[in-house]
């Protein structure tokens, strides 16, 4: 136990010791009551790193007294699974915690799944990835519940830190440590809701601080220096990264520059500059669109500059682009109109191109009836340019309107032109 990390030693031993995640395993939840009565269902635990997936599995094992085995799907092989199956046959039932379950391959599934189905193996799978995207449906169907864990609150983390400081058997309670409430709060804030990081940081800060007369005096500079090393929560390839991209776009769409810059900061700290630039460019046309067409060019220039500059300088043009998009007029009418046209095609609402619109740049086109096209530029219409009354859609779709203008920004002027031209049609 002496050489084990503090975060490992402080894992809850029973469901009564779990901190946080009260919506999943609090004393009032069905899962808590089931486990207390000796019934453990198969389940999937989904959530970011450090929020208690492994801890909850260990706590359930400690409360249920079912023989417990833990495997990581990244490293487990067929022999490991076969050994679990053999143990299940001998003991009648085992509890298997399978971390990184989204990496489970088909061979492992084929070996394990029948025994999960008949109840001889109770499976607790854990994943940081969205189980509806990354976990095989065969596994999902055999796990009665998909439980989404949340990042721990600041109060949860502070509670864990205080428990570690007080626990004389597993924590640091046997040591003389001078630490203030403000320092505990600073460690909690630096962990960003990750219990493992919080306890690891506390342990590191203890060893990095000076001792005087047998008392270790926690140093603020040690907290600040070590907090920078624990990294930003999330990774550039996982579900959390895509959640950040989604939050960024929805914040821009909602015209909240503070939230948008916060999520941009998270994304840039994760380091995938190309993915961020691609999303910003899509947003310029998806959410700003015709209400402010110049934004597309501005964002294009900003993202090109960002890629050329690289991080950390790339943050400067990207911040400008994000704030401009947040505070711009917004319209999604153009791409929504296109989606409506695509949907119509998929629904079979098609027809022949009118003859006068078909290609006529070859000898014999007139014999095929490809005649009658009126050249709009030959019919000036005030300052608009040129317009002429003729049908462009197939007969079967004549009169259909896919485009529904949004009366915002520059599109307000375009909408007026659109309505005026409609009034000219006979």
UniProtKB/TrEMBL annotation:
InterPro entries: AAA+_ATPase, AAA_assoc_2, AAA_ATPase_RarA/MGS1/WRNIP1, ATPase_AAA_core, DNA_pol3_clamp-load_cplx_C, MgsA_C, P-loop_NTPase. Transmembrane segments: none annotated. Keywords: ATP-binding, Nucleotide-binding. Signal peptide: none annotated. This is ATPase. Residues 39-151 form the AAA+ ATPase domain. GO terms for biological process: DNA synthesis involved in DNA repair; DNA-templated DNA replication. GO terms for molecular function: ATP binding; ATP hydrolysis activity; DNA binding; enzyme activator activity; single-stranded DNA helicase activity. It comes from Solibacillus silvestris (strain StLB046) (Bacillus silvestris). Gene3D superfamilies: 1.10.8.60, 1.20.272.10, DNA polymerase III clamp loader subunits, C-terminal domain, P-loop containing nucleotide triphosphate hydrolases. Belongs to the AAA ATPase family. RarA/MGS1/WRNIP1 subfamily.
